[in-house]
Write a structure and sequence with these properties.
The chain has eight helices and no strands. With 159 residues, the protein is mostly helical.
């Protein structure tokens, strides 16, 4: 029977050989034997990023952070995966937390700046997509939010 150490070594070899699916599978097998290893979750997160399984990568990186909140690489991987999912606010938060643990690491600062740019772009595109309230007729813009969802009788069919 393979040990956690054996599986981790094989996973690293597979990763170096660009066989990321095998690496993820081997990390999964190792996690079956040692489900409390933050390193294994962080490493599987990296393999999942490489195979474009970004949701799984976020979950793995988050679990690694739960197990070891001081692991900067887990924050980096969560940030990268969130960026791939276009979740820039969440990515920025993860990257900022990781930067506090790895001060001066330019990977974090570069990605944080990219998140800020994407967030600003999203805000600009929302402004161009969403109409200004002044463009609505007065009858629409004066509707009370409290009345949304309330049922009223049709005034034409009053009895």
């Amino acid at each position: 029977m393979a040990t956690v150490r054996d599986l981790k070594e094989k996973a690293k070899e597979a990763f170096v050989d660009d066989n990321f699916e095998l690496a993820a599978d081997l990390y999964s097998q190792a996690l079956d034997l040692d489900p409390s290893s933050a390193d294994l979750y962080a490493d599987r997160a990296q393999a999942n990023i490489k195979v474009a399984s970004f949701t799984e990568a976020v979950a793995d990186a988050s679990r690694a952070i739960e197990l070891d909140p001081s692991m900067s690489k887990a924050y980096l991987r969560k940030g990268i995966a969130c960026m791939k999912l276009e979740e820039y606010q969440t990515a920025k938060l993860a990257l900022e937390a990781g930067l506090k643990l790895a001060e001066g690491d330019s990977r974090f600062t570069k990605l944080i700046e990219e998140c800020k740019e994407r967030i600003a772009e999203e805000a600009i595109s929302l402004q161009t997509v969403l109409p200004d309230a002044s463009s609505f007729p007065a009858s629409v813009s004066n509707v009370s939010v409290a009345k949304v969802g309330q049922h009223r009788r049709n005034p034409i069919n009053r009895k």
